[in-house]
Amino acid sequence: MIPADLLARTQQRLPWFLQHLRQLVEIESPSEDPAAVNRAQGLAAKWAAELGARIKRHKQKNFGDVYELRFGPQRSKQKPLLLLSHLDTVWPLGTLKSMPWREQDGKIHGPGTLDMKAGVVMALTAISVLRDLNLLRPVTLLINSEEEIGSPISRPITERLALDSQVVLVLEPAQGLALKTARKGVGNFNVHVTGIASHSGVDFERGHSAVLELARQIERIAAFTDLRRGLTVNPGVISGGTRSNVIAAEAHAEIDVRIARASDEKRIDRLFASLKPINKACALTITGGLNRPPMERKAGTIALFKQARKLAAQLGFDLDEAATGGGSDGNFTAALGIPTLDGMGAIGAGAHAAHEHIVTEHIAPRTALLAAMLATAP
Fold it and tell me: Domains in the chain, please, with CATH?
């Protein structure tokens, strides 16, 4: 059973939550600016230290630093619970001028509020409550610095910590009101076509258009989509050519791939490898692959969700589960076989959009749920 006053305790901390969230939101932290990300990371680490955290800072050269924050007893027979988070955002410096912190109509607006600075403050709030109740088990809060661009340097740290952890809870936003028990895997492929340039008026027949070849290949690539399998392929960016009176020597496409099943990684690799030039005078170069494996709905995750749903009922609200096409760092841990439950962060809307916000009334209940999961997770 969870403490009867757990929800009341998180509600009492709402002013602290809002004060600290505002400070984080007003430190802009785009993924591509390591110094900016480190300012936000350092502030969160300072707050964690005030809660007794043991801090390990993984310094990076070309990205923001990664912070590993450990709470609870240093010596325990229990494996730690791992909380995954990040403080980098998609928003460039200066966004606050057009998207300032704003509390209005029960919503809190601002860049990074939902995705996912609120999740970090929720974790610190939940840990604070459990610390006061002497219920704090070993917990590791990992704050990554480049999740929005694929976690290129934090992935091995995430995977190493996950393998030493009992379960993983991901502080990404909820899916509506639901927790996330499945996510698609995410891949990116690049198709480059080399043709033969010529003057389109004088030497038309000597040219072999890379643009035309790419257009034909895109038709093939789009046909890789198989909605019944949850496999989607989107040629999202194309470029090529230099002038309208020049037959294009180069063309390029960037393609987003999503898969619902881990077994489809080899399938999609084979499909891209099977592409051959239609015009034999052109050449294809294909690079890329899967960046995040899918988070499939498996027994460990289902058990975590059932525990969360039971705790939510004790706290006075219903809880559903959902699947999403987006990826998170939870994809990495789930693929290792570690029970992973995603969407434990804030409720709101507009991630990566100008109307990004969280809903105030859900902050205390969802923070209480997070605290309850940390206290009772198997």
Answer: 6-183+294-376 (3.40.630.10), 185-292 (3.30.70.360)
